[in-house]
Amino acid sequence: MPNSQSLSVEKPSGSIKTSILLPASKSESNRALIIDALTNHQCTLQNLSEARDTQTMQRLLHSQDQTLDVIDAGTTMRFLTAYVAVTNKNKILTGTSRMCERPISILVDALRSLGATITYLNKEGFPPIHVQALQYNGENELAIRGDVSSQYISALLMIAPTLPDGIKLKLSGHVGSRPYIQMTLKQMEHFGIQTQWKENIITIRKQNYIPATFWVESDWSAASYWYSIAALAGQAEIELRGLKQNSLQGDSAIAGIMEQLGVQSTFVEGGVKLTKSAPAKNVSVDFTHCPDLAQTVAVICAAKSIHLTLTGIGSLKIKETDRIKALQQELIKFGATLQETTKEVYEVTRISGWKSSEQPVVIETYDDHRMAMAFAPLALQQNIRILHPQVVVKSYPRFWQDLTQAGFNIAEE
Fold this sequence. Notes:
By secondary structure, the chain is an alpha/beta fold. The chain has helices at 26-38, 52-61, 74-86, 105-114, 150-159, 178-190, 220-232, 254-260, 294-303, 323-331, 369-375, 399-405, and strands at 6-10, 16-21, 44-46, 67-69, 91-94, 116-120, 129-134, 141-145, 167-172, 196-198, 201-204, 213-215, 236-241, 263-268, 271-276, 282-286, 307-311, 336-342, 345-350, 361-363, 384-387, 409-412. Helix 5 (150-159) runs parallel beside helix 6 and helix 7 runs parallel beside helix 9. The relative contact order is 0.15.
């Protein structure tokens, strides 16, 4: 993993033909770790993610410290808040300055309604928080917004079987990132929990988790950057290992999206092969259930002069950075814009021809791993320089090494 302030990235000299073992899914890993902790660590978890988010989760679940620093891991913050409450751990949860700007009041309010004692230590509605204990008050029915973050919902669902009367959770409004909620329920079922999701109500009665072995699939979010490389390369044959056709991960939607953008997926034993095809000229994608794919797809369409209409990206504003603003600031460097044309409808449009030059275009990453990896494939059309490349450690620590394996010329600056 480079420690330099920037990396220069140049395209391979020939066609791209490579086989990549993708990192394991941090989404599956972090859920499995919480469930394992709720069984008093009696499960066997295989192929856990090497991502910093997951390593942080592992470390904090075993920490004896009063203050748990999640760094910039949103999933870790949300899941640990519920876990610490239900296990009466009496901990302070904090993180980076950006983490302390990401709202958590929806989850805190829900836990308080169940009987949890949680105090904000700085700004109301945001970390750091002091989570003391959950003295169950007999209230097991609660409502929570479904259109802000599925992580709040997943955090509540995983602790539900441990409560005296379980939980009957009513999701209000439009439910975003639905596949992540389904992933949580499927993993809970793997460990013996019976669940019911009917219309907008999820019901989980009191039960015991049954310790089991769980193998974590490779990360479809990480796969999306290789789809981008396949789309932008002149010639490409890429095999991505560790992926399943019937995945629990919502970001497996990238396979269907990329059919429109010029990449075909062929599932084989142990993974998927990517090959090139003809792209469409106009594409519309609803990212409500896969918001982490939006940056990748926006960059591809800008580079290939495909007119893209995006909906369902409102949650991008409260991620590691304001991803909508970050995309706007970086795409303009390549002659493309991302604009809100009507309420909550955005379009990526090319406003000038592609003007490749020997001078690298400098990409700011805004402390966001997905900005670095979404823009890196543009090196296939223009030499680029990525600032703060180490941000990829959050989810895909081997990213730059894997690019080198694929033939990209990468140098620290």
